[in-house]
Design a protein that fits this description.
seven-stranded mixed β-barrel, eleven-stranded mixed beta sheet, globular
């Protein structure tokens, strides 16, 4: 039996959390079995960008918005060439999409790409459970011949955890490619792809930057082979404690004094490069409505997030590092999690969230302008040898 093309499948499905709690519903998307880390996203829109964000690799995403799929799927909004989520959980899928850009229903796209999902469950109760107990391993089982509850729970508990997972190379490009500047070319940036979203190099291209996107395995020699005016480290999945190679590359960039900008995973990489630790958040920040204060200006921004790990840095003091002084530049107003770092003696900064805002608010777009300004004030001939 296959799922309906109109989000009204009658095929039974069960969501099983590693602590034993279960939710019964109906199959949504592909029928089968999937495992991952259960996380929730608070975005009211932008589900297509969420699904195609490589940072969600090996995660089962629970949508807190009750109605999903209303605008269908188009060919313009994907952030990568495929859906990356391990599974998808919605309450009330749209029966018929209604949007002038829609090309096909969301459940058709999920099924076409083999993404196992579940619908018709109480996602509010599930979200509250995850907020209380924390993100955890989960399995979705669907089909007319489901295993017994004990077997399903045992399989979930055998699935790998996100802590200790080294995933960036699994989602990054295998070959370097170039995103040309839009209009007059002003700068060249080497972007290390740890799970980059398509809108990120586009935002830089809009500012006259030619972006050379490099694999996660790129060496320091690869980075400087493109004669960059600046270096960028992208978002990506997994535990930053495993990312020793990107950390070593970033330290080499810091040594040379090349303007540097990192987002999300790139912020965690900068934290590690400076000597800070990282830790796993209880349930993370995911969605497009997270309040963050830019301490350099005092401005509060509504921002787009997708991270389950954070940098362990002191919030209210300047810290001495091998690369000079650093301070926490941004902080989440919900829980005081570090959301940005800024070096005071070298041209480098990072944020934990997504300023490319796809989908999401555009409050943080100025960060790409800040990166451009850094490259304007630190010409290549002035960088350290």
């Amino acid at each position: 039996m296959t799922t309906s093309t109109r989000g009204a499948s009658r095929t039974p499905a069960v969501l099983v959390l590693e602590d034993g709690r279960m939710f019964r519903g109906r199959a949504y998307g592909a029928v089968g079995v999937t495992f991952g880390e259960a996380v929730f996203s608070t975005g009211m829109t932008g589900y297509q960008e969420t699904l195609t964000d490589p940072s969600y690799h090996r995660q089962v995403v629970v949508m807190t918005a009750p109605h999903v799929g209303n605008t269908g799927v188009n060919d313009e909004d994907p952030e990568s060439k495929r859906i990356w989520v391990a599974g998808y959980v919605v309450r009330d899928p749209a029966r018929v999409p209604s949007n002038w850009r829609s090309r096909r229903p969301l459940d058709d796209e999920l099924r076409h790409q083999g993404v196992v999902g579940i619908s018709g469950i109480d996602t509010r109760a599930l979200t509250r459970h995850l907020r209380e107990r924390g993100a955890m391993r989960v399995g979705i089982f669907s089909g007319n011949a489901l295993p017994d509850e004990g077997t399903m729970l045992a399989e979930v508990r055998q699935a790998p955890e996100m802590k200790g997972a080294d995933l960036s190379a699994e989602v990054a490009t295998k070959e370097a490619y170039v995103v040309p500047a839009i209009g007059e070319k002003k700068f060249t940036v080497a972007a290390v792809d740890l799970g980059i979203k398509g809108m990120t190099p586009h935002r830089m291209a809009e500012r006259g930057i030619e972006v050379h996107v490099l694999p996660a395995t790129a060496t320091v020699e690869d980075v400087y082979a493109v004669n960059p005016d600046g270096v960028f480290f992208s978002n990506g999945p997994g535990d930053p404690a495993t990312a020793d190679h990107p950390v070593s590359v970033m330290r080499a960039v810091l040594e040379r004094g090349t303007p540097l900008f990192g987002i999300c995973f790139g912020n965690q990489i900068l934290g590690r490069a400076l000597g800070f630790g990282t830790y796993k958040l209880k349930y993370g920040h995911r969605g497009i409505n997270q309040p963050v204060q830019d301490r350099t200006t005092g401005k509060v921004e509504v921002t787009a997030h997708n991270h389950g790990f954070a940098v362990d840095a002191p919030l209210d003091q300047v810290t001495e590092t091998p690369y000079g002084r650093v301070e926490v530049s941004h902080v989440c107003l919900n829980d005081n999690v570090v959301e940005g770092l800024q070096l005071l003696d070298r041209p480098a900064f990072s944020v934990q969230y997504h300023p490319e805002a796809a989908a999401g608010p555009h409050d943080a777009a100025y960060l790409f302008d800040r990166f451009t300004s850094l490259m304007s004030t630190v010409p290549m001939e002035g960088q350290r040898a």
